[in-house]
Amino acid sequence: MLFLFLGGILFGLIIVFRIIEPTYLLLFNKPLFIFWHPILNKMNGADKTILRREFPFYLSLSDKKKGYFEHRVKCFIDHYNFEGKDIEVTQEMKLIIAGTYVMLTFGMRTYLIHLFENIVIYPSVYYSTINDAYHKGEYNPRMKTIVFSWEDFLSGHQTKDNINLGLHEFTHVLHFHSRKRADPNAIIFYDEFTEIEKYFDKEDLTNKLKEKQYFRDYAYTNKFEFLAVILEHFFETPEIFKKEFPELFENVKTMINFKEEV
After folding, report:
1. Three-class DSSP category at 17
2. What is the mean pLDDT of residues 213-240?
3. Given 2.60.120, 2.60.40, 3.40.1000, 3.40.390, which CATH number is that of 45-255?
4. Which terminus in the chain has less CB density within 10 A, N or C?
5. Which residues of 104-143 are buried (b: 16+ CB within 10 A; e: fewer)?
6. What is the pTM assigned to this prediction?
């Protein structure tokens, strides 16, 4: 009897993930569902206070979705290895880094990805032996490591100047993930990236962007940096972004399955 019950559940899951969701994805360009957390990890009051203070995004959520956000932040901290280089990694630092990532991926079902395992934090700019230069942050897929200058991470987090190191480097990770995986959000991310590429590849569209002087010059280094920069703008000054470039804004919104009303 138990075997038949479990077999029925397995068959149902196969139908959902192999037939229903691909059809839904094709029709609506979004996953069938996002949150599947039967048991939520609870967060203590001190940690919640930090999230409330540091993330207006978190404050805007319904009580139910606040619970999902807290759960994902806690899972992120438990899942990845944090390492400080000449700096002590505090719980508050972990919460701010994790909260940044969870905010960026809140519209995605698969959010704990395996293309990075380590988060290395330096006090400020550090010397990278990869290209013999000083860096503020980087993603090294071969080492499965993301590196941050905490001074620059915190500065980007606290100021709305469209320069946000955390969003920038985590976007690089998500883009790399979209090229390697076939989960619904990875497919959507990659498909929307191909749409966004035209703003970089087509000279007339690029010139229109440059005329507005909204995106900083670094955005035009290459299409990968362009993507990372526009995600910074999407979260830091969304009203301006939406007004100036509504079509591009919608591409980004679809790419990360972002809900303006949460």
Report:
1. helix
2. 96
3. 3.40.390
4. N
5. bbbbbbebebeebeebbbbeeebeeeeeeeebbbbbeeee
6. 0.91
